[in-house]
């Protein structure tokens, strides 16, 4: 039932005919680029009015964030968004709507595009290349030789030539306006929906080493996330710096993160390493059989390093066979789900019963609707069958492994995070890495088309009071990997192994 965490991390997509179109200022070296003026058209204010009205009545995170004391601050914020939209919503509609949704610090609730562009379809591709989305994307004249010469003499560590998996190459250069400090202009592209000279990304500094990343996807829709850029700059998110190469490579790396479903190896005579790339329901049977086969070896090894970096979650059923390895004492999982009861949400569940019948969920949905109708509008309810769950996975503390380390990063989300929390209830587990993704406090997403637009609103209808504290900010590790340190080496030190 929970909306699964997207492996693409914090991507927020928006419709390609209500894109953010950016004017920008002239670059510092006018011989590199010549600016053009983009334009756009969409009724952003109408979309914002619908979205804000729906969120205020039907979104679980709204009631948690906007308390009575916080309501005046929220109203001031909303008026500010409205003024921005009235001023230049045609060019920056997506950014303003994202800023509004980000106010609630609810990763699952977002606005995105209903677009399903298929670039392999000649007719769709032709239509896209003729669309306002493509034509109005900010475009500047580009000269690759001058671009390389410019960054060669730049003293700004962020500026440079960057590559994205061999598919795109951009010049990231200072270009400041109210919404950005840098932009990335395409020098080369293998995508049929992009051409050299178009602005592929923007960066705005939010703190000393934190930037808001505004990237544009295949259909030119918007992708936003907060990035930490370490010094010296060798990467910006998924972009790898090609030129100029830093004289001292950053050691703050996550080493090589295995991409296989699972990876098992002995790091030494006393330390086992197990990586798990996903807990997806698709692989439940495979994961269960793999863990069962590995259990004898894991029970012979004193130290165990479980690597769930980049694990986007899936189902808590996927890791149940690992829990006995972590067990040290009886504990209780006191988290539970609260359902927001509103007429709008009741209607959504009734539509699901009618239009998307699922025999496995029919009884649950009917019971939920019945309970919602029995309480006042806007009440959070807890299903009768939901009770605190005792940790019954095991009653025996295994001699080995004696110590378990769970290594995770910001791309650990959803059920990956519940696995981390399960480990934290054990006395033999140490968590190491950085804050997790923060996709754990809200769930049961309803998808609502925004009238007269291509926008689609995804809005949470449940909250977990015990886990809301980790939403958006993530679960902090017991031991944070220091800057310029190998993650694996640090993890082994924490385990007390060579």
TrEMBL record:
Gene3D superfamilies assigned to the protein according to its UniProt record, in alphabetical order: 2-enoyl-CoA Hydratase, Chain A, domain 1
Domain Tail specific protease stretches: 271-477
GO process annotations (BP): proteolysis
Top-level taxon: Bacteria
A Pfam family annotated for this UniProt entry: Peptidase_S41
Entry keyword set: Signal
Signal peptide residues on this chain, from the entry's feature table: 1-34
InterPro entries xrefs: ClpP/crotonase-like_dom_sf, Tail-specific_protease
GO MF term set: serine-type peptidase activity
Protein's UniProt name: Tail specific protease domain-containing protein
Species of origin: Siphonobacter curvatus
